[in-house]
């Protein structure tokens, strides 16, 4: 019963690790107009929580040593709830402070949940990583889909529309409280020098560049399609397709990944499919855009599943997985925060669509390169340090 409760609790926690990040997108124009914020400030607002995901990754592992992994989950969800409420109060300082706090909470959760999965479900790690990545995608999809409904209920007031997402985080924290004593602090084992480790850096870079692709598309895909001439309804439909289809490969790919010795094939092929889909969506016939959105979504879900799986598959020990996860997400999400900001800057180029397409394809190619290295059948504990 404890293991079943742990599974349910982990899924519910995971569902709370994306809504606060993505629900700002649908109401961003309202936020800008009501607070008189320029486009640059709005771009920074969307990048700030992602940046904090990286900053939180650097403190998650030492923080876990003090409070334990389970206790850290409660703290993480508490920060998500507090940050979400603060961001929705309606003042500019609170808007940015809330983004910092909720991003910190999500960053801690991003490290702790995969670590708990490796500890509690080592024999079914592929399935559990698939459920984890699928739940992340599902949480993002549902929150984006429901946000316009809440906006209608609250008469186009963005503040309660954002603030309502604090409630699931509070419920998640309450659900997790009985598990706080389930697993204590991490064992004190010799530290693996990950910051001088070639394989660890490959996993980190793969995480970073795929995150840049995902958050760039999550923030700008609808706007890019609208600039092509699609109506608001059709751009929203294609963005929903992109989010919905992610769940399929987010569930399947990690399950298949742990059963093959050629994990590098997945690490290379899936970003390549994303690149093809981007070119098709931004330059292909209008009638084919839903198909390209489907392809992009499937591949993005698979790439994300591969990136998260690499963080636990490339480590023999749970403690090493926690450190690798912290490193990968510290650097990775700092990189990721530059994605939406970079595309925003490219919109002032002479040909914004071409510049954006080249940039996204370049990110995919870099991701493929590091996927070939991160997919090697090796562990960071046995990898030679760089000299």
Please tell me about this protein's structure.
With 387 residues, this protein is mostly helical. The protein has 2 domains: 186 residues, MFS general substrate transporter like domains (Growth Hormone, Chain: A, Up-down Bundle), CATH 1.20.1250.20; 196 residues, MFS general substrate transporter like domains (Growth Hormone, Chain: A, Up-down Bundle). It contains 15 helices and no strands. 58% of the residues are buried. The C terminus is likely disordered.
Features:
mainly alpha, Growth Hormone, Chain: A, 15 helices, 2 domains, 387 residues
Structural class: mainly alpha
Q: Which CATH first-tier class of the largest domain would you pick?
A: Mainly Alpha
**Number of contiguous helices:** 15
Going by CATH, the homologous superfamily of the largest domain would be MFS general substrate transporter like domains
Share in β-strands: under 5%
Q: Determine the fraction of residues in helical runs and give it as a percent range.
A: over 70%
* CATH architectural arrangement of the largest domain: Up-down Bundle
Write the layout of secondary structure elements.
Layout: H1 2-15, H2 19-22, H3 24-35, H4 39-67, H5 69-87, H6 92-120, H7 125-153, H8 158-163, H9 166-176, H10 198-228, H11 232-257, H12 263-283, H13 289-313, H14 318-346, H15 352-374
Helix pairs in contact: 1-6, 1-7, 1-9, 4-5, 4-6, 4-14, 5-6, 5-9, 6-7, 6-14, 7-11, 7-13, 10-11, 10-12, 10-13, 10-14, 10-15, 11-13, 12-13, 12-15, 13-14
